[in-house]
């Protein structure tokens, strides 16, 4: 079934919106306030899919989204890597010297520290969403406030970009996952990457043994992340991404993990992607 509607966390014009357009083209975007609501929309069938960020090259993993992947009956169907650009966006006709304060998501603000520090007297305030800051400025008609957001937010709300590319580091990428219900038929013919979660026995050497099983299976480990197991202090669930050649090798790696771990959940098989500028 074709994907016609996609849930994202945040407002239209956000980086998640841009990632959804890159992966799927012209689809209906359904903004959600919380990431848990995004997954609920997928599981309930209110939308066909979701696009969520899982990792940023500067700030690391989005921990909450790993937890949701483990809990919800969803599957990773694709990934995308988006170059993150931050822009100062204001009401049309406003000049930069008129802007007295800027709003944006705390992560975006932290990625623009150098530019912000160079603006003497500029007030900086956290906001719930990058694109949401532009939406707020436009809805309120604020002429002394600007948002920091993707260029798509300016287009979405009829705003104007005052300064482009104020991020500190040009090599700033976010990796996104396309998620669908896990009972939806999947096409894994082009898959060369697999994400899996597993829990090892709480004993010395158990994680090393599990990773050795993956190495012996001949797969290429590209990512490992740990998260606490709820209700079990100092025990962890490990999330691993690995590349593989051929479905048989992926199956062999999973079988090897299951022989060593007491809980294994395959999160999805999909085609790996490279960063896009």
A few lines on this structure:
The protein is an alpha/beta fold. 30% of the residues lie in helices and 33% in strands. It has 9 helices and 15 strands.
Characterise this structure.
- The radius of gyration is 21 Å and the shape is elongated.
- The protein has 9 helices and 15 strands.
- The chain has 3 domains: 5-83 and 172-181, 3-Layer(aba) Sandwich (D-Maltodextrin-Binding Protein, domain 2); 87-163, Periplasmic binding protein-like II (D-Maltodextrin-Binding Protein, domain 2), CATH 3.40.190.10; 193-270, 2-Layer Sandwich (Alpha-Beta Plaits).
- Strand 3 (49-56) and strand 4 form a beta hairpin.
- The longest helix is centred in the last third of the chain and has 14 residues, at 247-260.
- 42% of the residues are buried.
- It is of the alpha/beta class.
- Strands 1, 2, 3, 4, 5 and 11 form a 6-stranded mixed beta sheet that branches.
